[in-house]
Amino acid sequence: MEKKLLITSMLLAFSLCAWAQKEKELTAQEVCTIFCDLDRVPDYNYTTLLLENIDKNGKSETLEIKQFGGGDNGLKNVAFDFVAPASVRGMRVLQLENIKKADDRWVYEPRLRQSRRIPMTERTKSFGGTEFTYNDMRIRNEDEDINTMADSAAKMTVAGTTYTCWKIKSVPKKKSEVEYAYRISWFDKKTFIPVRIEFYDNKDKQIKLYECEKIDMVKGVTGIEYPLRRKNRVTNLVTGRQTVATVKEFVFDGKVSSGYFTQNWLTTGKTPKK
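and the corresponding structure tokens:
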């Protein structure tokens, strides 16, 4: 699978300028391409995530996860460190992006005291007991789907905010690798962020709902501004369970040690040297 290089700040500015000049000319594929590029910056990031699991009766539990992002040659690597509660503390996940082939993913399970590769067949499963799957924790390239425009001026209201959106249907080219038959997304025209995504099975039944409940424009340490999906909610429409993901703190464009993206960190959890 072909991987795209991370865009530079100049290319980002050019893309937004070109979009402003010919908004009506954008195709579904172009919208998805811009989103993938925007969502891949910054090159380096550190984030603390709070993931609140809520069952259908309202009972909840919150996980705290440290996320480290970085990479070389335009490839994005991500490391997740589960720090709370005690039931998941010590669990770690490593994702390494590759060119022309599927990403490599491993999980360290503290109860077993060993790490193992996550096969493609397991990437549709729950990420740390949440309603996010392992597939949800990565960015799908636009060329992994067949994208078609359903409505180029759709209105969508999420958490009290109404957005003007591109409504796009995306059908995975390799359906065996994902847990749905297709998805319908509403991309905000100001930020290119999908504010709502509906996931359907092969019987056209909606099985999952994603909503971005808060978007903030934030600056990295270099002064570059990025759209941040501050609060996100995933609802499993089959079980009624939800997971609300909130960004507690973040640092963008601050150098992250490459040591996080190694088997040594995965198995030991030791903070790498700068």
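(Above: one complete record from the training split.) Helices lie at 9-21, 28-39, 263-268.
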